[in-house]
């Protein structure tokens, strides 16, 4: 039974020099010498040294410290002593009582040399042992908070739209299907249709953070079968520029908040400086982007209309060289490679009012003005070979006064990847899901 | 093509008397008389009257207003005129230009007499036509913001855990299964296991808002197959009291915020006063609750250990009479009706440290201190007849120093139901999902 002495966080120990406090955390480094015992305890705010002089037989503290295994959960009550010799903040805790709340088995199944797949198998230990992993989730929290702050101030409403759909959304490809009582259901590949329904329902600006499912057998460092999407949809826009403007200001606001709260810690743990981007971000049409790339010798097979990852990286390098900016909106994607619901340019009906946002060469967003005219939408669906049956409920929204609107979807983990300089999306989420990974 | 005159919201018209502004919204009431045309325009902030004196042939404004159908999306530019005779805020807009951005088909498929199922079929029109429905989502936004504010201030981290699982969670009953490449996956019935993994990963306090899936063929007014759960998990607790204390303070904070932002509007639209609850909430053991109920004559078949909805309502009425409080924590649920991972009472191993929170007689939360001792957890799983194979990854977390912890899950729509006095959960979400409803 744990007694109710209140907990002191490691980061606050300095304020309690000379006092008796109770620290809760995990035993890490264990150095047990003949006369002294040293244990480092870690909580989510830092690490502290426990120093105990052995008193021999009947010394309960000595026995408890001796029994400790690495990563055991402990509660240590003792006196905070100022000791400039101690590396961890010039402080040590001299224990009066050591309670082992949960003893860890030894040896641990992972260590500092364990590869990523084995680390992911024991993700709880992987995250706990590496303070930078914990920092990632603190950054995620602040990033979302910053995006919400901006969106709420702009009048957005937080929506939670269903992930279960009665018909396969969009194209029907890459959709997970499931048995739903006596019929089939499908997992939403994005909240796309539902956030547009919310616009048709008179919600002025939609903000949603939620899971997105893709039955795509992709094994790249930036794909997952389930990821967290940040979705925004804006009603009554004058054009796609309103959407890009909203996104760049939302990102700049959120990144400023992250830089302020975690800039130093991110620099220390990840070696990355968080540069708060200036707005507006550079914009470039797809045609311009391709011209720039081809001038630079980029001409891959099968990427004549879209950019491939290599093209995205080269383009970002070019833009950063020209403008000093890490972001670039690529606009006016060809209609052939965009979904039927992207609005077409009035002047160039072969082009859409759709865009991608690249950050340091990684696509973090797809967005567009949507086609809100029922007849045009029907034509564009037919042109893509889509039957209107499964789209009936969606198309209905456009028959009764759906206003002009547009929006974007952002991959949260991709933003974190770029922000923290991570090599793989597997490290940017708590529990990764891919074609070969459904556990833990 | 929409011109870029900036938009004025209806609620701000009073500030623009005498000026030319542009309003965007939906045409509602259309009264076209021989000399005058009156149209009410609604946006998400209110309704305004458009008043036009017919000028006859060549009057483009007259023609546009004449062509309008109810719920058409319009953009109206005109002069704001102070007119005390007008019911809608003593203001009217005298139009210079009327643009029909999207004409609604007539007649509309739903009207004021349409029943709930047909309204749900056209939920976008249902929500758009009823300002109280839009208010619900504004309340939801503020409620979540209030909960997040409290949780962040308490040091919580926002997590997004997977909804795809490799094994059926918890009991295996009521789980949706899907084909996942070459094997099966299951939809998470709650983030329970994953939020506990986050605790084992050293995340001190977990906060998650996300979808929860239940393959339950329930047709009550309070069940859904997919709903939004608000989940909290707290590490290093001294006992289950810490969990209840966190929840009641979080709710009180969030409800105070909702009352401040929307109290008047909720009273007007829903006829409900938002009472900010005092903390602590009343607490009562299940044994006490049953005694109270049996004294009052409640003794239903098949509800000897748990409370049925009727019992919950009666209990709430009793508590409100005794204490004046709308909330009550029912604690010490019998182990037989709680999951294996609820910690048992040390004194009474037949009882758990699990609780429910009732608000006005509706269960809005289940919570507990969790069993964090690996050996005890194994025993309790075996006692419930659970094989440890599918639980392997979960049980692993308890082998390497998992701290004492506990938490709760709250149904967001249930909170909104009680808060706004709604009869059915179908009205408390944007797009309801039940055994017979997968659309729109």
Helix and strand layout, with pairings?
The structure is a homodimer of 440-residue chains.
Chain A: E1 20-32, E2 36-43, E3 46-53, H1 60-67, E4 73-82, E5 91-102, H2 116-121, H3 123-129, H4 131-153, E6 157-158, E7 164-165, E8 177-180, E9 183-187, H5 192-200, E10 205-213, E11 226-235, H6 240-270, E12 283-285, H7 286-295, H8 309-323, E13 327-331, E14 354-359, E15 362-369, H9 374-383, H10 392-396, E16 405-411, H11 412-420
Parallel strand pairs in A: 3-5, 6-10, 12-13
Antiparallel strand pairs in A: 1-2, 1-4, 2-3, 4-5, 7-9, 8-9, 10-11, 11-16, 13-14, 14-15, 15-16
Helix pairs in contact in A: 3-4, 4-6
Describe the structure.
2 copies of one chain form a homodimer. With 440 residues, chain A is α+β, with helices and mostly antiparallel strands. Chain A has 2 domains: 93 residues, Nucleic acid-binding proteins (OB fold (Dihydrolipoamide Acetyltransferase, E2P)); 304 residues, Bira Bifunctional Protein, Domain 2 (BirA Bifunctional Protein, domain 2), CATH 3.30.930. Helices cover 30% and strands 25% of the residues of chain A. Chain A has 11 helices and 16 strands. Chain A has an 8-stranded mixed sheet, sandwiched between helices. In chain A, strand 4 and strand 5 form a beta hairpin. In chain A, helix 3 packs across helix 4 and helix 4 packs antiparallel against helix 6. The radius of gyration of chain A is 27 Å and the shape is elongated. The two termini of chain A are 30 Å apart. The mean pLDDT of chain A is 94. Chains A, B: Belongs to the class-II aminoacyl-tRNA synthetase family. Type 2 subfamily. Chains A, B: It is found in: Cytoplasm. Chains A, B: Its EC number is 6.1.1.12. Chains A, B: Its main location: cytoplasm. Chains A, B: Keywords: Aminoacyl-tRNA synthetase, ATP-binding, Cytoplasm, Ligase, Nucleotide-binding, Protein biosynthesis.
